[in-house]
Amino acid sequence: MIHRKIAFSTVSMIILTPLLSCGGGHSGESYVLVSTNVKVPYWQSASSGFAQAAEQMKVAYVFNGPSTYDPAAERDAFRDVVAKKPDGILISVADPNLMKDDIDQAIASGIPVITIDSDAPASKRLFFIGTNNYQAGMTGGKRLAQELKGKGNVAVFTMPSQTNLKERLHGYKDALEGTQIKLAQIVDIKGDPRITFDTTTQILGNDKKEHIDAFVCLEAQSGKEVATVLDSNGIKGRTVIAMDTDPDTLNWIQKGVIAATISQKPFTMAYVGLKMLDDLHHAQLGKLNADWARDSFSPVPAFVDTGSALVDKTNVDEFIAATKSHTGQ
Q1: What is the pLDDT of residue 8?
Q2: I need a labelling partner for 67 at 20 to 30 A (CA). Which of 93, 176, 209, 229 fits?
Q3: Which domain does 291 fall in, by range?
């Protein structure tokens, strides 16, 4: 599936230009973004992109979802949104198995659904917009191998139910093939950064039993927790590879505690996603649950890759300056 996504990404960007053209009126239209945790900076950035696109097109918009990581609450929020019959929904899926039937029912009722950031590939969602997560994992894995000089034990913090994090882990594993680097512990943080903090503390306490040379964080909240524990205990010489650009994560990179992080584009995902939803609404595709993946003349892509990049001490100041210039914060 990963290779198929990579192959489609180029096609997606080629057809993006006509999809982004917003002809016609927008009277009475409404669109919704449903996220896994509305409070975290990552999703605040996505909300900003969603709002900017909506304001440009003069359409109504809502940002919805739980205020903590809670897949069941996200499903309930999605159900509430569907009941209001919006003109389109963007959703980042916490648990694809939990959300599949609800997404399929929304599609069957004629509501376009596009997944962003985290996919539900077995559902009938129209397509996915987000990071090539396998490639993001490869990027992190190559940097990890460089930092450890090809040898060492690693603890990984993740949430195994999320498709995007599975793909990142896959990328790390492939990047580390042929090295003597071992993924010694894979920890499910269950959306709670306190688990990362407590587990890192326990790992350091068991250092004589199993020395951990590096910490890999596949989601946004863990990197700063690991860095806090290491700094508080005066621990040097451990490699931390984080994910995303939470302000605290960037601060720890500046201080040299986190070696690098992989940046994504949540603003872009939501901005592009809303404009594509609007285009689909005006295109009046008719039956939404057609087998678009097998249709060589499909009006929708399979995957839109919004890109990712490595941020480390060499470019973190530039990244922060660019962020402040855009957001004013």
Answers
A1: 32
A2: 229
A3: 2-131+265-307
